[in-house]
Amino acid sequence: xxxxxxxxxxxxxxxxxxxILMNFAEETGLLxxxxxxxxxxNRIKRWLGFADFAIGVVFLIALLVTGxxxxxxxxxxxxxxxxxxxxxxxxxxxxxxxxxxxSFGLEYYGFRLEHHFHLSNQRRLSWAWDELKGWLVGLVLxxxxxxxxxxxxxxxxxxxxxxxxxxxxLLFVLFAxxxxxxxxxxxxxxxPLHNDDLxxxxxxxGEQAGTRVRGVYKWNLSEKSKKANAALTGLGATRRIILxxxxxxxxxxxxxxAVLAHELGHHVHRHILKSIFVQxxxxxxxxxxxxxxxxxxxxxxxxxxxxxxxxxxxxxxxVATVLSLILMPALNAYSRYNExxxxxxxxxxxxxxxxxxxP
Length: 359
Ligand SMILES: [Zn+2]
Hints:
By secondary structure, this protein is mainly alpha-helical. The chain has one domain (15-357). The chain has eleven helices and four strands; from the N terminus they run ααααααβαβββαααα. β3 and β4 form a beta hairpin. 30% of the residues are buried. Mean pLDDT is 82; it is low at 1-32 and 353-359. It binds zinc ion. Zinc ion is lined by residues 10, 12-13, 262, 266, 339, 342.
């Protein structure tokens, strides 16, 4: 899971990322941020991420430049008996299948890497099963997005980008709400926390921060990872605290409280809401820019015949990718700012964190 307060959940206090908890991390033998081993791990991870990204971009460009995207569209239409929504699905299916095949080697290398640095307990079969489930979830989400998008484009070629922006914003908020109950359990087992003492401490900490927590759950992470993690996820009725068993087993209640205090710091500073607004602004610009690029490709270059020609999907994805690449440094800085704010909240709200022992 990624760091940052993106989406409706903050799953960010991976211990080694968290300045407050660096001291604790040392005690349990997790990677410490400035050890040579951790630097090597982080460097390789960055290169893997970059290579994966580069493969994806090259794939998209190749589809557009060679005209394979048109070939795939024709194939999808033939296989889908010229039924438009069915053909959109088949096209997305083929696209995701090819990109999975292309990136599979790197992903397997990433899996080996986690083992090499003793960060993972996961067996190969379990990993492969997770990969398959991840791919299927990706397929379902991409299909929903593509079907909705091209439906809107067909209904309103003029204002599709504005309508799509509104619809996707709603979908995004809905998704953030259901993710902890629907999506996370596909990959991990959760059970209610039985430690009443800790549960009470954490719920009280939540009340102090002004959030009504609807449950504290134990997150069975240890069968897959050695990293400790905690999160405050969901919106409204699905709002819950999840604590990795790796955290519960290796850290004292005081330390766990400190981790959660950081998460609650995100809540107090309304980082979820702010992130949604930031996302909304960026997405609006993104949809507008995509519309411009599509018109440029169709009107000036005649690459696609119409807006609703779903062979233009790689171009849409490419525009979104380039845009997010340009915005990444700013978004990362924003995310770091949020992390520091959450840390400061944790300092203030937890008396047990000794400020003198912090870096
Ligand atoms: Zn955080």
